[in-house]
Design a protein that fits this description.
The chain has 113 residues and is an all-beta fold. The protein has no helices and 9 strands. A hairpin with a 6-residue loop joins strand 6 and strand 7.
Length: 113
């Protein structure tokens, strides 16, 4: 999977972020997730190849540099796109995304009963 940001006037590459052995089928969600005036991007990356993904990761990339601002790994892969919710507070947009197979360390289920 690769995300490439182009300059809208020159169409020259501004930055590129790649995840080897991964694929992305969802639409990136632009939003203001840090304290600058450049939109950032939330991306879902599925690790593996179709139809044998072994995990997924939600990542927010800095719109200026492509640096990872935040990530959230999961144990299941999905194709759904994230959703950005614009707020009145600069740099504090909210987001929603669907997760399959998230396990939290320290939380156990009683599977016996």
């Amino acid at each position: 999977a690769t995300v490439v940001v182009l300059d809208g006037e020159t169409l020259k590459e501004v930055w590129k972020m790649s995840w080897p052995s991964s694929e992305a089928y969802s639409v990136p969600a632009p939003g203001f997730y840090n304290n600058d005036s450049t939109p950032d991007f939330m991306v879902r990356v599925n690790k593996g190849v179709w139809n044998k993904y072994n995990s997924s990761q939600m990542v927010i990339l800095d719109g200026q540099t492509g640096a990872e601002l935040w990530s959230f790994p999961t144990h299941g892969a999905t194709m759904s796109s994230p959703l950005t919710l614009r707020t009145a507070d600069p740099g504090r947009d909210a987001f929603l995304f669907w997760v399959l197979g998230r396990e939290t360390p320290g939380v156990q289920e009683d599977r016996a009963g």
